[in-house]
Specification:
Layout: E1 3-12, E2 15-20, E3 26-30, H1 37-49, E4 68-76, E5 81-89, E6 94-98, E7 101-103, H2 107-112, E8 115-118, H3 124-127, H4 130-144, H5 148-167, H6 174-212, E9 218-223, H7 232-238, H8 240-246, E10 257-262, E11 265-266, H9 267-270, H10 273-295, E12 300-303, H11 312-323, E13 328-333, H12 337-340, E14 349-355, E15 358-361, H13 364-373
Parallel strand pairs: 3-13, 3-14, 8-12, 12-13
Antiparallel strand pairs: 1-2, 1-4, 4-5, 5-6, 6-7, 9-10, 10-11, 14-15
Helix pairs in contact: 4-6, 5-6, 6-10
């Protein structure tokens, strides 16, 4: 299991200087709204991705009046240990250091600290655009197919060049043919990677959703982004005239999608909000389970406001599933009582209270007393 042993946060939102010494399993971060709970999760995400999951701009992330935001962390696994640091200034320039050496690519961080986020934005897997579901799919492909990133970059370059030719009306000659071939070749590889991964993920999702709620009839289907009966090269030739009019490539792996349906109807239109949260949680947990089985170590889960829209029974099922996943988990909530009585006595649970940007770990005796009062069994 990959897990964070130490996290040191400086100048992220209202967090001036915070040090977190987490449990390798379950960590509950509680406090009032606006206290900085989500900022703790954001800081961990920043460490693994060099960006925020809450804002595309860096300015809101950096504490007011400060030049940069910085997070350091120590990550341990059965195979290796890493010291990593990420800093980003108001001009969006970032520095990445891993074991004292500088790196330029955020993919270096993602390989060391694989992260899964469950927050209100996760509903985009049902109600958002196909791009949201492609990003979800490609996260998994990136972590299991070492060729994916290079092929994906070549595909993006080919599409950019092809679209530029289409926009400027340069559709004759050998130049377009070169980029057509490059686009088709890499597009077919991306589709193969995605399809192989999806076929592995689908049965794991079925199992996860059964464990969470026992609902029958939720189905996933993968759509590759062009006619399933046609070769991509042929599609590009047939659609050249329409692509030229539109000024961009209309069909290809950049149009891929995952359809989520419940009894044949789009899940977003047929399930309640609580049921939708179960489905998106099942998607994320299934991805973590598959990651763990293929890589022999788990990922790190960042779960913001877990109790929201889930009754006690479904919270309990979700937490019990998290306990079995060989993953480190960080969960935020307002009232710690909403999660206190759920965990197995053998699970190492740490609780942290956040108030006005300050983080304090609940004392062990206070935590044990809290669990007892909440009705949980604890070790003597």
């Amino acid at each position: 299991m990959s897990s964070l042993q130490t996290v040191k946060v400086t100048d992220i939102r209202n967090l001036v200087s915070v040090t977190l010494l987490p449990s390798p399993t379950i960590n509950i971060i509680h406090g009032a709204n606006g206290s900085g709970k989500t900022s703790i999760l954001e800081a961990i995400y920043f460490l693994g991705m060099a960006r925020s999951f809450r804002s595309l701009r860096i300015k809101p992330v950096v504490r007011n009046g400060q030049p940069a935001a910085t997070v350091f962390g120590k990550v341990a696994s059965e195979k290796a240990n890493w010291s990593i640091g990420v800093s980003r200034d108001l001009e969006s320039n970032f520095r990445i250091q891993i074991n004292g050496e500088s790196y330029k690519l955020t993919s270096s961080l993602a390989s060391i600290l694989p992260l899964q986020v469950i927050n209100p934005d996760t509903f985009r897997l049902l109600e958002g655009s196909p791009k949201d579901r492609r990003q979800f799919l490609d996260w998994g492909v990136f972590h299991v197919e070492h060729r994916f990133l290079d092929v994906w970059k070549r595909l993006q370059k080919a599409m950019k060049q092809r679209n530029a030719l289409l926009r400027h009306g340069k559709i004759s000659g050998s130049l377009l043919e070169v980029w057509d071939q490059e686009f088709a070749q890499n597009g077919k590889l991306i589709d193969e990677f995605r399809k192989k991964y999806f076929d592995l993920l689908n049965p794991v999702f079925d199992k996860a959703i059964q464990n969470l709620c026992g609902v029958e009839g939720v189905q996933l289907t993968y759509q590759r982004g062009w006619d399933k009966e046609s070769d991509l090269s042929d599609v590009l030739i047939r659609s050249l005239s329409r692509d030229s009019e539109a000024g961009y490539t209309q069909w290809g792996p950049h149009r891929a999608d995952i359809r989520v349906r419940y009894k044949g109807v789009a899940a977003v239109d047929s399930l309640s909000r609580g049921q939708q949260k179960i489905v998106v949680c099942a998607l994320k947990l299934a991805q973590g389970m598959l990651f763990s089985s293929l890589n022999n170590h788990g990922c790190v889960y960042l779960i913001d406001d877990l109790p929201s829209e889930l009754d006690f029974q479904h919270r309990q099922r979700l937490c019990q599933l998290l306990e079995t996943m060989n993953s480190q988990v960080f969960i935020t909530c307002v009232e710690k009582d909403s999660l206190g009585s759920i965990w197995s006595p053998n699970t190492e649970v740490k609780m942290f209270h956040v108030e006005h940007g300050t983080l304090i770990e609940d004392a062990a005796e206070d935590l044990e007393q809290h669990l007892r009062s909440a009705g949980a069994a604890v070790l003597p």
